[in-house]
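Entry 14. Structure prediction run on the chain below.
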Amino acid sequence: MVELSIDGIKTRALEGTTVLEAAGEMGIVIPTLCYHPSLSPYGACRVCIVEVVKGNRSSLEASCTLPVEPGQVILTNSGKVTRARKLIVELLLSSCPNSKTLQDMAANMGINRVRFKIKDRGCILCGLCVRYCKEQMKSGGIGFLGRGTSRRVATAFDLTPEECRNCGGCEWICPVCERACTAGNLIDGLCGGCQNLAPVETCPVCTGCSESVGPQGHKVY
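Output returned:
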């Protein structure tokens, strides 16, 4: 067993356990995008970063690929971590502004605008679909092509390979395929569709039922 400290609480974890897993066992929620418990860790999105304190210095590292070590001091929600996570989510939103998952994550983090130029690329290169296809479906029909800004997920020669089983798993596991409710009509890169900026009132038309209305008469379910 490895002894370490997470958010000021001393804990023990099995050798080989990641910091993300150790924190989860303590009930500490660390946001993730490219991580899935049934797939190999990848560390691509960096949303799960934590602060690793070593003496008077500290560093930010992806908790999904960081193994626990004896005497580790981990902070999962420090000011340094919070600022970095917000920046990362803003950058991801600038690439995939219509993603419901990213919009929800931004709302939970209190992000009120995206400060970067928005260009919808439809992919954050998290690698979930590639790993799912290879590790779960044993197919490997899709993969990464290109480098740098031209890097993308595709099939060989952009043709459907014989290995593809049309299972739909790549779309199911994708964190950006589900579109936000106000996709295409964003304000400062954000959806804002789930924010009730005025008190919720009983619907005057549906008196007696469970429906309510928010600002501008939009129904709230």
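The longest strand covers residues 49-54.
Filed with the rest of this week's runs.
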